[in-house]
Amino acid sequence: MLEQRIQQHFIDSADLKYQAAQALSHPIAAAVQAVLACVTSGGKVLACGNGPSAAEAQQFAAFCVAGFERERPELAALALTADSTLLTTAAAGGSNDATAQQFARQVRALGQAGDVLLALSVTGNDANLLAATEAAHERDMTVVVLTGRTGGKLAPLLRETDVLISVPHDRAARVREVHALALHCLCDGVDAQLLGEQEIP
């Protein structure tokens, strides 16, 4: 019984990835172009998310700086989720507004025109990501959002030059699995554009 349940997770995950491949390839390609335009013109990517999405934001930033699967020069990226002192300062104040502004403050402090904000959210309704998106627009940054289903409240905030990668599923675990794959595709796509195509082993 338990083994069947485990096998079903693999099947469900594979099915969703297969179904999403065609729908998500265009927005992921657009995200590759946005990140590429940013880093090749001296800009940087600021990545953020909450909970498990925070870890994905940090992993993406690490891939940019340390490399993905090939050796290449470092790309400028920073996970806004990695500054525990700054993040917990808002929590210590006990203010919901301060917590909602935790990423927006960093975007306003660090973001410049031409930079990219990468926001990850299963629901698309996180108050701190909504505020960060608005702050990114104030700085004339491009916003790339990875979310689930319809994109939640983040989707209507996006501009024509922004990118929405919305996984067509409601279950958080499935959405995060596809987010991980999408981020790998994003890293690989940037490397392929910078270094040339390489056969996928």
Walk me through the structure.
- This protein is an alpha/beta fold and 201 residues long.
- Helices cover 57% and strands 12% of the residues.
- The chain has seven helices and five strands, in the order H-E-H-E-H-H-H-E-H-E-E-H.
- It has helices at 2-40, 52-66, 84-93, 96-100, 102-110, 127-138, 172-195, and strands spanning 45-49, 77-79, 116-120, 142-148, 163-167.
- A five-stranded parallel beta sheet has the order 2-1-3-4-5, with helices on both faces.
- Helix 2 packs parallel to helix 7 (172-195) and helix 5 (102-110) runs parallel beside helix 6.
- The longest helix has 39 residues, at 2-40.
Keywords:
single chain; 201 residues; alpha/beta; five-stranded parallel β-sheet; 7 helices
List the helices and strands and how they pair.
Elements: H1 2-40, E1 45-49, H2 52-66, E2 77-79, H3 84-93, H4 96-100, H5 102-110, E3 116-120, H6 127-138, E4 142-148, E5 163-167, H7 172-195
Parallel strand pairs: 1-2, 1-3, 3-4, 4-5
Helix pairs in contact: 1-7, 2-7, 5-6
Count of runs of 4 or more consecutive helical residues: 7
C-alpha-based Rg, rounded: 17 Å
Contiguous uncertain segments of 5+ residues: none
Major sheet: arrangement of strands: 2-1-3-4-5
In N-to-C order, the SSE pattern is HEHEHHHEHEEH
Which structural class should the secondary elements be placed in?
alpha/beta
